[in-house]
Specification:
Blueprint (H helix, E strand, L loop, with lengths): L1 H28 L7 E2 L2 H17 L22 H10 L11 H11 L2 E2 L5 E2 L1 H8 L9 E2 L3 H14 L4 H32 L3
Antiparallel strand pairs: 1-4, 2-3
């Protein structure tokens, strides 16, 4: 029983670190708080997954809950969570440098969708996003706050247990993934501006 408890605690610590990496990523994706990003977790999940897949495979991943594989708009993509998870599972982490495997592995686990109760799909990102309101829920976009970035940075530097070298590598990975997300964010913001009134 103690082993299970330690395993759960370790998993909780990993997801807390992944959440702090996520806060850093959206900071970098928003040009350090100077640009809007979508507020819905569906957009953000797809953008993060696409950036991870893009960075590992070196090929754009256009599938989202409103776009197909050819980057064409669709009314609503059924099963997008399953396709997203399958694409993440197909990533070969050994293609990355060894210093990048840990942050990418944590982020894949963070954004992966699993079937939940009542036919809904859940991910750690979705639950974290809903519990930590960083945006006005009445708006379709938001700009991340610098304080959120600082809290994430503090956690990574002082509470994560990472060595200075590991902190350097996870921060670099966050910058790269955030930069990669911008392509997908621009596409999604254009869709939001055309189709949303809020």
């Amino acid at each position: 029983m103690a082993d299970q408890s330690a395993e759960v605690s370790e998993q909780d610590k990993d997801m807390q670190l992944a959440a702090m990496l996520w806060w850093q990523i959206i900071w970098y994706a928003s040009h350090e708080g100077r640009s809007e990003i979508p507020s819905q977790q569906e957009w953000l999940s797809c953008e993060l997954a696409a950036a991870i897949i893009d960075e590992i495979s070196r090929k754009p991943h256009w599938v989202s809950w409103r776009h197909n594989e050819k980057n064409m708009e669709i009314a609503r993509s059924r099963g997008w969570q399953t396709r997203l998870t399958q694409a993440l599972d197909a990533c070969v982490l050994s293609d990355l440098g060894s210093n990048w495997i840990k942050p990418f592995k944590l982020l894949i686990q963070f954004v992966r969708y699993e079937p939940g109760d009542g036919g809904e799909y859940d991910s750690a990102l979705r639950m974290f996003h809903e519990e930590n309101v960083l945006r006005n829920p009445g708006h379709s976009t938001f700009i991340p706050h610098q304080e959120t970035y600082r809290r994430a940075r503090y956690h990574i530097d002082n509470e994560s247990g990472l060595s200075p070298l590991e902190r350097f590598h996870v921060t670099t990975a966050c910058e790269v993934i955030g930069g990669c997300m911008r392509l997908y964010i621009e596409r999604d913001l254009a869709y939001i501006k055309r189709n949303y009134t809020w």
